[in-house]
Design goal:
Mean pLDDT of chain A: 87
Largest sheet of chain A: none
Largest interface: A-B, 45 and 46 residues
Oligomer: homohexamer
Order of helices and strands of chain A: HHHHHHHHHHHH
Shape of chain A: globular
Structural class of chain A: mainly alpha
Helix content of chain A: 55-70%
Number of helices of chain A: 12
Radius of gyration of chain A: 18 Å
Low-confidence stretches of chain A: 1-16, 18-24, 26-38
Chain lengths: 225, 225, 225, 225, 225, 225
């Protein structure tokens, strides 16, 4: 990994954020054609110069580029500080991609239902695309973006999203009865933790995105329609 | 660190959570006097057996015990899964204890103002105590718990908490004007990120706590009165 | 028009709504391939047999079929009663397609902003597609669906949507100052009426759609992406 | 009708709205005594000159004058444009006076309950009077204006108004269970449509009235006390 | 006062509340014609037998009967306990009838604006009548019942009611700026106290009335129309 | 009582409120050491000179001083006018200290739950201390301040606080079903009145305190921790 790291140049002044981020990923070479991430400039409304990517994060960004064709803007946004980027990535990957009684689709459904309650443009765009992709059902993504009650959900998934939206809108009112409803819908103790943790995580992410006017990669909009 | 790790025994069945967590910390030896963490039993309303602490986390728990005299219950709650505990601790420590233009007191003030908006018993208790300690002003902690508008704040701190509460209650409505108010109150770009990130983090933590009925260590209540 | 009208047979029993509506349009002949309107069955959650289309409405439905390739489900939903269908169509066409100081795109933007506030699945789907089409900007449609504050709007259009959302969410609080903001953004007296009337109309339509669980034609989802 | 129509003169400049409307009705002749509609001047806060009434609308206004003793101000407000006036009148008359499983009183009760939720001065005044008249029970009108829960309603009517207020306040939350409650209270499929349509219509009218500061004819206040 | 007191008989069992109250006032003699207070039976939804009126309260009830022609039902409701009745009457009379920089009409306007925000049937009825009477303007009473923003108020009175409604709906958000607005509208320190105290009092009364389903004397509805 | 009364000097100019109040209590003699009530200066944000205490109120203040060691600031705040102070004290003492089926602790629990809903700094501080004292359970006080749902309450007390918070937040929605829940939890008719009256009283007090920025005596913060 060292070889690649050498090519990553520190950003020495407050250059437009996403351009310097691209440079960080590409090793400072000029970008010769419009990159997918460059479409909504700047990525956030705060002027925070991108830091030198740590080896681990540089590898992760390259993996994103290879696998997705782009680096999600949220990662570029956090890339001004490696400690913040790394802890965000660690938590995100554990929650959304780690082992769980919830399918990846279900976790994305929660992400979208929470983000709809909070009207978060960034997360609705990125995770709406994920629901469309994981489900192979473009309508499902749209429905949860717009009003999850309009989706034709199983009882299990409806209970899951009802809990998600209640915990988002009125966390102070969640009590034993709410956990019982999840148990009756078939969720185990660990599942309830996982639902709660995903709901909680997107209540965090939605607020970072709204606070900074974070803009999603344009490529999401057309995915899996 | 190995030496200590050997003493930590894996939990082999779903024992009452806080007892097994204690055992994990103490190396399975019987606890001879009431430990501060055992006061509100159980710590959460989900039955999740504590996992074997990783070496890093075992060390961290011991450090808590030495420095604070107890392990905060939130850590015990997350200790059913090391990946979750570690990413939580990493993010928490970076945000609340890492380098920032915000003082530690200011970050705790944000934690309490957010938790008051969300009426989170756990976080109000733990971070209310922190505000009392860092500020040396017991009233300040009470005031932010009850209604931050009642506290006699500097313009800077008032702007910070106004932003925190707006981002908590109506994240969709945060726009350029809100960031401008922070800039006019003297906050820089990185400060605005840090304020936002702390607000966001406690919107996450509040929801994990509410979703699981997490109970704070009783010791907090009497601290720094 | 007479010739076509003769072929329209009255619906004699409470057949599944959308099938009988198709028959009404097609003159009772069997539908040989899946029609676009048939995708989300039934169109509404009330069992209301489609009435015989009046000559004017039969012509209008054919025009929809020719021009759009489908009859919008809202029209099929109202087709159980000609007086209701006709007054709905008359008001809709005057407001959305008639002469106005507002462009058709602007009227659709209002429709979507209102429907987003009310989280109306039908109207967000149908009018979100219209914003994408009229604007040639797929992102704009998405942004207004998700949170109009995320769209990069002119001052005029921002003032227009701010008014729309306030009038939707808290009509009792609209006063002279709100009208003055529209005037300062360049709107005339008649424009203010038109903005208000479109806002009001979609506050009506959203509620008919929500009350009846109206399902949009699936074809909208893929339009103008 | 021709004879009367000839006497209606077009309004040639932006005269005070309600005066020109009177002239349109009366054929341009001076009004010799205070007309009931002239009491709250101007009728709306937008300067929109009244158009020449179409023959149908002129006849309708005369009918209002004969039957009610005045032309409701909402009609005068819409009279700047015949297409808008006509589609409003068509929809209103079908909904409120047409055939329905709901009595006219029940439709007016819905109008008032919705307008109370939206705190619409115009509609509460005009339709509050209608409830008092249709019911012969002055208290009933007052109660629904103030808080429909204070009225002694039948189960049927209580279910109807509960649905009306929920659909007004939180349309996104209306689901199958809400329709089922109406069915259990004795309402049929068409009745549910009619309830919904009246609720929806007044959510429209309330917003046109609030957006334009529409003033009710003073005569309503004293009716049927 | 003794002579009158002798005629007041203690109520010996839980008779229907308003009947026993009447008996208390009339000295136990049969009521020969429908008394104004008897119209909405029972006065409250709690079964609380009326106590023997103290001499002071008996005199006060007689004074009400002579001056108003009826005893306001709120007094009958409190008459199950003399200490409660007396402290209520003392506070009410001081606030609403005592010396103040606010006119009696202004105090009643506040009462109605607060009760409208809280949708209190009892208080809107009784104090709506008072506004109509004191102002000699029946419309003013109706407007404040329905939406005080629709009333044509002086700047002073508008500032007063804006404060009243804010203090009612979101007391936690009232701060120095709100008091300053009152000062700029011409109110002195004592006036601000009086406004606040009247707002506060009706936030109390509204809740006693709503909690007990208190019914106003029917006579109010027709007063000063 | 005369002897003491003579020593109380009238306040002759708008001196700083709490100083003159102290003088009124102490008979104008210089206060030689910091009095507990002087800690948060001034007590309210309105400049209202303290009046000469009536004999009854002077005795009451002395009793407070002797029994509590301080005069609660709310009393000092009302002391600009004896009629207001006396009616407040009479109502308060009857409700909170008089005979009732509710224990004094229960009444204080209601006071705190209401004040938490209204986020009233003064009342949360003063009555939070009372709950801690009466219950001998410091946590209980904290829990009701923060979120009463976090407290381990009996069914009776939970029903009581649920009613209290609903009546505070949405008084218009309280109906027979809510009173029935109290009856089923074991409360009698008079108990329901008492619960309602205490809820109502603190909805009043919270608003007087918020409207005037009333500051609690600092001594409360440390009591019964």
């Amino acid at each position: 990994m060292n070889k690649i790291d050498k090519t990553i140049k520190p950003v020495t002044k407050a250059a437009p954020k996403e351009k310097s981020a691209l440079r960080a990923i590409k090793g400072g070479k000029p970008v010769t054609k419009p990159a997918p991430m460059a479409d909504d400039t700047p990525i956030i409304a705060l002027n925070l110069p991108t830091a030198k990517l740590s080896p681990g994060m540089a590898a992760y960004f390259r993996k994103c580029q290879e696998k997705l064709g782009f680096v999600p803007n949220v990662l570029v946004a956090y890339a001004f500080d490696m400690a913040k980027l790394e802890s965000f990535v660690a938590m995100y990957n554990d929650l959304m991609l780690g082992e769980s009684g919830l399918s990846k689709l279900e976790r994305e459904m929660i992400a979208v239902a929470v983000s709809s309650q909070n009207r978060c443009y960034y997360c609705l765009t990125a995770h709406g695309a994920a629901v469309r992709q994981y489900s192979g059902n473009p309508l499902l993504g749209e429905q949860i973006v717009m009003n999850y009650r309009a989706a034709r959900l199983s009882k299990r998934q409806r209970a899951m999203l009802d809990f998600a939206v209640k915990l988002t809108a009125a966390p102070w009112s969640v009590e034993d009865g709410d956990r019982e409803k999840l148990r009756r819908a078939g969720f185990g103790e660990r599942d309830i933790w996982d639902i709660s943790a995903v709901v909680a995580f997107f209540n965090m992410s939605n607020r970072v995105a709204s606070a900074t006017d974070m803009r999603p990669n344009t490529v999401y909009h057309g995915q899996a329609r």
